[in-house]
Amino acid sequence: MNRRLTGILASVFQLRQSEIRPELTKADVGTWDSLKQMDLVLSLESEYDISLVIPDIIRMVSVANIIEVLKEKGVDLAD
């Protein structure tokens, strides 16, 4: 996985980077609530210089979906 993205997710959700994997979902992370979702959105927008819209935000309920949304926005997630 992309180190930059892993770092953002670990920081926002207060997890170890080793815990971040594509199959991780909102249901798996106790700290992933609506406020953390907005922290995530702001962090991603700032880090990757993108704008996320409501449909993107709603889709981001797993790491795999976050990756999908970022790729659709043109973010290069190659390490």
Descriptive tags:
single chain, 79 residues, mainly alpha, Non-ribosomal Peptide Synthetase Peptidyl Carrier Protein, Chain A, 4 helices, globular
List the helices and strands and how they pair.
Elements: H1 3-13, H2 34-48, H3 54-59, H4 63-72
Termini separation (Å)? 8 Å
Order of helices and strands: HHHH
Net shape: globular
Round the Cα radius of gyration to an integer and report it: 11 Å
Total strand segments:
0
- The average pLDDT score comes to 96
Helix content: 40-55%
Textual characterization of the structure:
This protein is an all-alpha fold. The protein has a single domain, classed as Non-ribosomal Peptide Synthetase Peptidyl Carrier Protein, Chain A (Orthogonal Bundle). It is built from four helices and no strands. The protein has helices at 3-13, 34-48, 54-59, 63-72. The longest helix is centred in the middle third of the chain and has 15 residues, at 34-48. The radius of gyration is 11 Å and the shape is globular. The relative contact order is 0.19. The mean pLDDT is 96.
